[in-house]
Amino acid sequence: MFTRDEWTRGTGTLPTVKGLVWFTDGSRIAEVTGTGVYGQSVGRRLKISLGKHATLFQVEVYAILACVHESDTQKKQRNLL
C-alpha cells in the first residue's frame, strides 16, 4: 500500500496483482446518468448511458452488474480458445 505522501507525489511502483482487476463508476451530470466499467487486466472499457430517470444508486448497481457480465464473458471466451 502507498502512504498518502507517496500517492500524491507519484513515487513507488504499483503492486503486482494476479487475476482480474475491474473498476466501476456511475454518475449523474445535469439530468443524464451513465456508468463506466474498466477491466485493467483485460484492457476492456465500457461507457453506458442510462438516460434521465435512473437514480445514482441504480447507476452504481448497473456498473457492478456490467462488470460481472464482462468478467463472465471474458471467462467464456478464454474457455473457447
Which keywords apply here?
single chain; 81 residues; three-stranded antiparallel sheet; 3 strands; 38% helix
Would you give an account of this structure?
The chain is built from two helices and three strands, in the order αβββα. The protein is α+β, with helices and mostly antiparallel strands and 81 residues long. It has one domain. Strands 1-2-3 form a three-stranded antiparallel sheet, with helices on one face. The N and C termini lie far apart (36 Å). The model has no long low-confidence stretch (mean pLDDT 83).
Task: Summarize the model shown.
It contains two helices and three strands.
**Which residues sit in consecutive blocks of at least 5 with pLDDT less than 50?**
none
How are the strands of the largest sheet arranged?
Answer: 1-2-3
Radius of gyration: 16 Å
Helix content: 25-40%
Number of helices: 2
Principal-axes shape call: flat
- What is the tally of beta strands? 3
**Element-level helix/strand string:** HEEEH
Q: Biggest β-sheet: count, sense, barrel? A: 3 strands, antiparallel
Question: N-to-C terminal Cα separation, in Å?
Answer: 36 Å
| Average pLDDT for all residues | 83
**How much strand?**
25-35%
Structural class: alpha+beta
Task: State the oligomer.
Answer: single chain
Integer count of domains? 1
